[in-house]
Each structure stands twice: as structure tokens, then as C-alpha cells.
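Worked example 2:
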Amino acid sequence: MTNIAEAQLIALDWGTTSARAYLMGRGGSIVANRSASLGIMQVAAQAKENSLTLDAAFEQALAELCGEWMETYPLIPVIACGMIGSQQGWVEATYRAVPANLAAPEFELASVEISPGRRMHVIPGVLDLKTLPDVMRGEETQILGAVELGGTDSRSEMEQLFLLPGTHSKWVKVQGRTITEFSTSMTGETFALLSSQSILSKMIESSESVSWIAFERGVQVSQSANGAADLMLTAFSARTLVLTGRLQRTEVSDYLSGLMIGAEIRSVIGAWDGSVLPPLTICGNKELSARYRRALKNFGITEVRELQGTAPRGVWAVACALGLLQASPV
């Protein structure tokens, strides 16, 4: 078991479909970590199945995930980010509007009692109140962790661009530690629907390896005059190219992936009106990041940094900014 002097924080990245817990020590090091399929959707289903209140179901899930740590280290703070702070989560953490300083010492955390005399703090999401509003939960903490790991000075005014690919990909402009604006693309969710429930899914045969040729073909279509029209006018080609013998069924999934990721990137780049993109960092799993890097290269964007597992470092930065580690063992 970890020495008591080493443990200073329990950080949780608690999302829709999964939950990850990190026992963190001096300087933000990760002493131990655990993960489980205990996202808020699964917890809600368990509550209904076992006739539990939602609070009781979340208490059980937390105990399963890191109950031993909480018993062993009763004085260290417990801080969570992600969908656990949504309306469907354990306690709602209200959004902060952009511009949002991710490490401002004055912003408020939500909290919920997890045992007598002990509360779990929850980091709020971020809201962009533009004409078509946008929101994020959890990604803001990943970005803060990426900024910290990147060594950006807290007083820096340098603009950076962060890409968080996934079910709902986020493109986020950050100045120093402040989110200034962001947008969401439903690329991941739409790809999942098209490749599993649409007529295009009838053309797909699984493959053990990625066909990068098919993927880049999709990206190149997104860059073409046809791609400039609309994704809805090119997606059907994932069917017709097979029907005309110009695409193999084992290539359809990767072709469609390239087509959609390419369309996403083209839209984002178009918003810069020909100006140079700020330094770009991708925060995501290695497989998905590799697809975006490959697609970005087709657009001439090669200077890209990749980071994984930034959420716990972001939680640590919040704990430091709000002074929550002062009473922790040192």
C-alpha cells in the first residue's frame, strides 16, 4: 500500500460511459489508477434495476471504484470532473461562461456528501453563449492538464488550439489558461450511427487492420470540390463506390471515417479564413489521435503535439489553484 505521505488527492474523470480514478501524490504524480464501466448511464441503469435512489447508486459506484483509497486516506480531497456534474449526474455543477480561466482561484466547485463529514468536489463545465451555444464537461479539465504538462506560463497570452477527438469532438481556443471560444463536432456519434444503423452499414465488412489508403481517400474527397458542397452529399459515396466496384467492403469503414474527419477539419480550418493556425495539441486516445494526425497532414498541418491522460493533471491543477491541498499530508 502507498505510504500515507505520498497520497494527496483522489481525482476522478467520471463520464457518460466510464469512470477513471487516480490516486495522486507529491507534484501531481499518479500513484495508482483504476477504471470501470461505471459511467453515469450505467449507474442510472443500476439504480433502476436494483430499486435504489440515484444517490445510493452513485455512492456504491464510488465505493467500488476507490472506496479502499477513501478509507485509507480519510483526509485527502476527492475531486471529480466530467458528466458526473451534469443534470443526469450526481450533483449539477453550473457552467462557467467563456472567457473561462481554468485555474482561477475564485471559481466555485459543486459538491456532494460521500460520507459523514466528507464531500466530493465537482469541477463545473464551460459554456459558450454564442448564437448557437456550446457546452463542455470534462474536456476543460483535460485542457488544463495539457496546458500544465506543456509548461505554458500561467501569465502567458500565447494562443493555442486544442483538439479533443471523440464522440463529440471539441476544438478549443485557449489563451494562457483561459478558454476563449470552442466548437463541437458530432463526428464520432454520427460515424457510429452511419456505420451501424444506416444503409451504409450494409456495405461494411470488418477488417483486422486500418486501411490508411481508404482513410486518406475519404480525407481527399472531403478536400475536393465535391467535399466542399456538404458531407450529406458525399457520405452516400461509401455505398456507391462499393456498388461500382471501386471500394472494397473491408475499406468502407475507414473511407467513411476519413470522409467525416476530413469534413470536420475542413470546416474548422475554414473558420480561420486563411490565417495561420495557432499551435495545435491533440488530447485523445492513441488510435483516434493517429487518424486525426493523418488527416491533418493531408491538410498540410504537420506540427501537432499529442498528449494522453491529461484529466488527472487538470484536476491536480484545480486543487492547487483553490488551495485544497493545503491540509493534505505532505
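The CA atoms of residues 218 and 259 lie 4 Å apart. DSSP finds ten helices and 15 strands in the chain.
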